[in-house]
Structure formats: structure tokens, C-alpha cells
Amino acid sequence: MKKSLAIFSLTSCEGCQFEMLNHYETFNGLLKYFEIKNFRLGQENNFDENFDIAIIEGSADGEEQIKFLKKIRKQSKVIVAIGACAHLGGIQSERNSLPQGIFHKKPTKIVPAVIKTEYIIPGCPINHAELYHCLLDIYWGKQFFLPDLAVCFECRVNENECLIKSGKPCLGPITRSGCNSVCVNAGEACLGCRGAKPEPNIEKLKKILEPMIGEKETENIMTIYGDLTNEIDPSAKK
Amino acid sequence: MKSVVSIHQLGQIFDFIKKDYRVLGTKEENGKPIFGEISSAREILIPTPKTILPFKKLIYPAILDLAKTENGKPVAFFGMTNCDAEALCVFLDKFKDTGLVPPFRNILVISTTCVPDENCFCTAFGNGKITNFDLHITKEKDQYAIFSGSALGRKILKLNRIKVSNTISKPTAVKLENVRKIQLEKLGKAIDDKTGKLPFWQEIADECFGCGACTAVCPLCFCTGKDFENDAEGGCKHCLKWDSCYAKSFSEIQNHFDLRPSNVNRLYNWYHHKFVRSPKEDGEILCTGCGRCIKACPAYLNQHRIIETVQNYTKVIDKSK
Ligand code: SF4
Ligand code: SF4
Ligand code: SF4
Ligand code: SF4
Ligand code: SF4
User: Fold this and answer.
1) pTM
2) Is the minimum distance from the CB of B306 to ligand 3 under 6 angstroms?
3) Which residue among A220, B20, B94, B171 has its CA within the 20 to 30 Å range from the CA of A16?
């Protein structure tokens, strides 16, 4: 039997939804198992009913979005939060650290801070294959796990020159693997969009980065995507 | 036995081998030395610098699709440092009952002189003698000296009509400055005996990211995770993926119960497996002193210095008794 699926977007750039649309071919295969009941970006006819799985992108801004999120929770058996905004707060969470009053809005909230969240697919944008496997695993009742080494592991497998070892900043050592170190493969530093790996040694990384780029810049690059240390596995929090 | 050949003759030997073997070796790609498929002798780097990933990526790839079995030509390594040739032998021995890799006796090993760097410490575990090869090649000005180390090696030279001198000569042993001998027995005991040493290991763990880079690059780390990936066609891909004992999931069992709950336990296991458990089980330490882990570590830890320190740690304990 098909499971019903809904895809919602809160405050975000909708890049993760586009990542799904970009890999339309891949996700098309899922239609054998899922019926998409609500997907504003992808289809015309959407339904406001109960869902087996709700995918949520973005962080919750203001009472309206919080209320909306709570409603979706009531309507859905499983919540899959996707992307750095839902998981870490995203770029918009920068304002959470600014003095109150500059913005009229209250701090932006990550999805697990508002509702119980069964799964998080991290990344900015997400790795579409990871979401795809998560959905299939949910369908088959198999436990879905994210990889939990650091990006450095994949970066070594890809035989890149290590940025840190050549005196350049990189957040790979504390960031959860699973993106195949795409940024470093392309010559850019890892900026931690997938959030921290378990037991991240942030103090050590600060000790390396601060003499390299200064205290302020270290703080800056460690907060681009929000709070890196947000727990990935809400069920393990207990 | 030693022979001296021209670059032309070396090419001839290569082509001869290429007919029957899939030739793998060290070449340059995007300005970096890497292990890869070799199609002509000119590609092979002799002397041979160290690659980021060792040979294992070719015979036991990071993601191994179990549905695809390759049944091609036998493998020849052409252009491989002595330490990697040694590691290859141990690596394949660990896998000998799995059917996942070819047996060592079916792999032709043509090792080459290495270019030691500041991280190398292979001589700490032995005398640097070069022994694990069918053929060994060193560059001598614009010629190449070839040593044969097995009947197969001699046969290859003979079939290529290479004159072999009668005087017995062996490749020059590797010499490294400032590398002191490590007494393996002492080291093993020092690691195995944990009494009062938690602060010592904790101090190292405080500096470690637990990132697993050191296991990815190690020629003698071979831990593997199983991965089942469902696909939309209703199938399920069954893969083996390189894993690392630095991963939390590696030591976790049901309900997230972690047998090695903290990074200090995982780090300790790395040393314990390499220098205590493996020698106990198979008589082999899982380290050749290639220094790749030192180069790879983003935390600037130096595994060589760490084992030197642990080795001498016993003294401190003995004195205090
Ligand atoms: S470049 Fe970054 S991700 Fe890659 S090994 Fe170095 S620190 Fe890790
Ligand atoms: S390398 Fe880092 S910043 Fe880039 S996708 Fe991976 S986790 Fe995100
Ligand atoms: S590479 Fe260094 S930081 Fe990473 S796990 Fe190994 S010892 Fe620790
Ligand atoms: S050190 Fe760790 S990853 Fe390497 S072989 Fe031993 S248990 Fe496996
Ligand atoms: S432990 Fe380090 S030095 Fe020893 S074989 Fe592995 S990578 Fe090389």
C-alpha cells in the first residue's frame, strides 16, 4: 500500500526542495511507494489531511509558523526535517544572536525545538540520495542511520590535500560525514552545513583556527549555518 | 640478483607483464602521487613517493558492491614502496578466508625505491631491509637496477632476455635519520596495561577529533561496515564500506548502547588493536610505519611519537612502584 507524503516549507531558500526537483528522476521512482498529497512547489492539487510522512524544510519564524508546524505534527505519523535551516537554524538564525529590538521578529526556531522530529536529513542543501534512502527505509520499516564520522574521513578517501594542514581553515574535523566532502573536492573549505558529528572536539578546532584566522572569524565560520551542535538524533536525546 | 636495464628495456618488461596482468601502481594525477591503473611504464613514478591512500583503495575499494564480482586478469603492482609491499602481504592475509581479495601468492609485486618523508618511521620496527617482492626496481642515473626476489621474478627477467649478474646483491636497505627502534614487546605490554594510564590516553584524546582520517589512509586498517540500500525497484544493494573504529556507530549496539562510550576509548582501541590484539592473534602488528596517519591527522597528532611515549611510559610506572 502506498504511504501518503507531504512536503512543506517554512523559512528557507527552498533550496532543499529544489534539490529534490533537480533529482526528479530519482524521486520519481518513489511514486510507486508514496502518494504526494501536498507539495506546493511541485504540484497544483494539494490536500489538507492526515499524512504518513511530512517532510519539513526551513526554520519556524513567528507564531504563525509555529502554529502551522504543530498542526502538521498532529496530522503526520513521521516528521522528516530536511536541510540546515530545519536542523541548525540556517543563515536566518544569525539574527538570534543580535540584540533584541533590531528585528521585530522573535528568534527563529529549528524544527526539533518546536515539535518531536523523527528524522533529520542535514545539509545545505541536503544530499538528495540521503533523503531518498531515508524515505525508502521508513517505507520498509527499516531503521535509518546517518553516517557519523567526520567529513575528513571522506575527504581522505577522496585524496584531497588537507586544507588545515596547509594552513587554511576548514570545519571538516567536527562536521558529520555523508556529503562525500563535496566542498573540499571542489577546492572550498567545509563550513559545517551538516552540523556536528557526535562528540565534536570544538575546543581543539578553535585552538587550531584562532591563531590562523582570529577569534572573531573562527566564531563567524562556526555559526554560518546556525548552531552546529544541535543534536541530530532527537530520539537519542532522552 | 641484480640486473641493470635501460628505460627502453623497462618498458619492454612492463608490456610483457601488461599482457597477463591488470597493472596497478603509483603515478601522478593532478600534481599528486596516487595509486591507479597503469597503462605505460612511463607513468610509473620511480623512485616512488607516498600516496595519500595506499593500495587498498584498488583491491578493496571504499565502497564495494557485493553484487559486482570482477573476474578479470590477475593483479600486478608495479611501482610500490617497500612498506606498502609489506602491508599488502599482511592486508591480504587478514582477508584470506573472505574471497573478497585475491591471495597474495597470485599478486605480482614489483616494488620500487621509496622517497622517504619526515613522517616515515618504518625502520623503527625492523632493519629497513627490502624483502617482499618479485622484482624490485631502483633508479641508477638514467638506468634502472632490477633485483629479483622470487622464481617468478627471475622468470620474467629471463623471458625478457635480461642478463642477470651472478654476484649476489640485494637492494639497499632503507635508512632513516632520527628514527629510534621501538621494542614491540615492550610497546605491546605498555599499551595493554591500562593501570593508572587513563589520564595519559585522555590527554591525547583531548587533542583528537575522532575524525577517522588516520584509519582511512592506513594501509593496515581494514574495518568495514555493511550497508543495505533499498532502491525504488524493490531491490536492495548490498555494499561493504570502509568504516573506522573512531566512529561512534562502530561500537554501538542496540538502543545506542556504546561499548566504547567516549572518544578516549575509541582512540585507545586504535593503538590496542594495532599493537596488542593483532600481534596476539596473528603475530603481526598493524603498522608499517608509513607515516600516512601522521600526515592525514588534521589535529597534528603524531602517532609515531605517541607510541614512542607509550613505550617509555612503563619506566615511569616501574619507578613509582
Ligand atoms: S581539508 Fe578539511 S575536511 Fe579535508 S581532511 Fe582537511 S580538515 Fe578534514
Ligand atoms: S563539505 Fe561541509 S559545508 Fe560542504 S556539503 Fe559537506 S558538510 Fe556541508
Ligand atoms: S586523524 Fe587525528 S584527529 Fe582524526 S581520529 Fe585520527 S588521531 Fe584523531
Ligand atoms: S585500528 Fe580500528 S579501523 Fe584500524 S583495523 Fe583496527 S579496529 Fe579497524
Ligand atoms: S598506523 Fe599510520 S604509520 Fe602505521 S601503517 Fe597505518 S598509516 Fe602507516
Assistant:
1) 0.94
2) no
3) A220
- Taking CA atoms, B289 is separated from A165, B196, B209, in Å, by 20, 28, 22
C-alpha distance across the termini of chain B, in Å:
54
Q: Where are the domains of chain B?
A: 2-159, 184-320
Q: Is residue A238 part of a domain?
A: no
Could you tell me the CATH number of the domain that includes residue A111? 3.40.50.700
**Amino acid sitting at position A46:** N
List Cα–Cα distances, A89 to A23, A156, B114, in angstroms: 25, 29, 50
Task: Write down which residue in A109, A139, A169 finishes a domain.
Answer: A139
Q: Provide φ and ψ at B296, rounded to 5°.
A: -80, -20
Closest partner residue to B212 (CB to CB) among A33, A142, A150 is: A150
**Chain B CB within 8 Å of residue A44 CB:** no
| Whether residues A72 and A113 fall in one domain | yes
Can you give the residue range of the structural domain that contains A207?
151-227
**Three-state secondary-structure class, residue A70:** helix
In this structure, is residue A236 part of a structural domain? no
**If you take atom 2 of ligand 3, which residue's CA is the nearest one?**
B297
Instruction: Report B:87-146 residues touching A (Cβ under 8 A).
Output: none
- The closest CB to that of B52, out of A32, A136, A156, belongs to A156
The per-residue pLDDT for range B136-188, each reduced to its tens digit, is 999 998 999 999 999 999 999 999 999 887 777 889 889 999 899 999 999 99
